[in-house]
Amino acid sequence: MTANQATAANDPAAPIRALPAVAALTALARRQGSGLADAVLTAAVQTALADERAAILAGARPRRDEIAARVLATVAALEQPRLRRAINATGVIVHTNLGRAAVSDETARAMAEAAVSPVALELEPERNERGGRMREIAALLAALTGTEAALAVNNCAAALLLTLSALASGREVVVSRGEAVEIGGGFRIPDVLWQSGATLVEVGTTNRTYARDYADAIGERTAALLKVHASNFRVIGFVHAPALSEIVELGRDRGVFVVEDLGSGALLDTGRFGLAPEPMVQDSVGAGADVVLFSGDKLLGGPQAGVIVGRRLALDRIARHPLARAVRADKTCLAGLAATLRHYARGEAVATIPVWRAIAADTAVLERRASEVVSALASRGIPATSVPSEATIGGGSLPGQTLPSRAVALAVGDEAGNDLDGLARRLRVGPIGVFGRIERDRLLIDLRTVPPEADEELVALVAAARAGE
Ligand SMILES: *Cc1c(COP(=O)(O)O)cnc(C)c1O
Fold first, then answer.
1. Whether the CB of 229 sits within 6 Å of ligand 1
2. Interatomic CA distance for residues 201 and 210, integer angstroms
3. Distance between Cα 121 and ligand 1 center (Å)
């Protein structure tokens, strides 16, 4: 060992001094085609190098070329849109981690147009006077559900927070013990109530609550009776919850608001497609609830939004609350929501809205598509089989309910000894990510959630991922 090497081995700072220079890495990134502005590129390299330095101080001993590769990958990732197109082949129709509902082409066009162009958002073109931004969706929702008024906000969570803040702050809200639930992502009904300034009064039991339980809890401080749809779980067996109409009658009688949080908010009858009935917005409005809330991007199949419908008296109060301005829907959302609602108004929702196309897809058609994909893959030398599968609704709708489906199964342990996780990863990270699901040593590409137009592309993407092995 030379004297120099001995010094390096004993010097804890030596690996840090061996880190590649910022200038060398920015030059390398440029040669690899980085289009970042100079100052941004330098800052990105410095940040990535700082992470490497921290890792070395924590004991890591990466090779110089590994460091360079990681820094370049981090810098390159800045130029790649992360939210690029993907194919949902999971069989979960409303997939939260894949962005929930994909909107129809017409809806996407309406949203893009509102984004790139000025639109008469709060103007009445006829008289060039100020007009409400909710006019269009209110008119469509009135025609579709019979509601007196409507309002769209950022999402259903915001809709509930706003509604309770406007109607019940400083007062009491009665909720069945079985409905004081957690929706997901930390969204808990008791917490939302607390945040709105209302006090939760729980009634009944986890499995059985009667109208008289609500009645007994109503007092001077009661502002509202809140019904929450148990979206993501089911209690079965010895259960009871009063019908919404009973609660509405009670609310009228005692002069308190009745609010129903539907979550999914279907405008079509899921029973038509062999599923359990999901409560429909028009039924809740028809039953006379003062306020009905639902998401725009669950079973409605539109952009992310929280839709508030119901009686004018309650809606006026909600619209005037300061929070309404803080959580209001933007022009692209409103244009998209209106386009989606128009599909329902024309009676073409099942044919045009991706969520309903997936729910309504005929199993015989799925089988035929699977056979076609299997033979297209076979002609490229890729072994695959068509297998039965079960799709779910997802997005906190219809828990436990499945739809028969068909999947293309890519097996592992084939002659090339390919590994399944590696293939699944290459499919996910490709230019168009393909997200399937792994089940019993097979990668399943469930076709119920894949639009038929994407089948050919899917074949090409699987072939490319196999070629990368
Ligand atoms: C999903 C859901 C929400 C939240 O809706 P977001 O649009 O995700 O904010 C609220 N309430 C119920 C009952 C739900 O199912």
1. yes
2. 15
3. 26
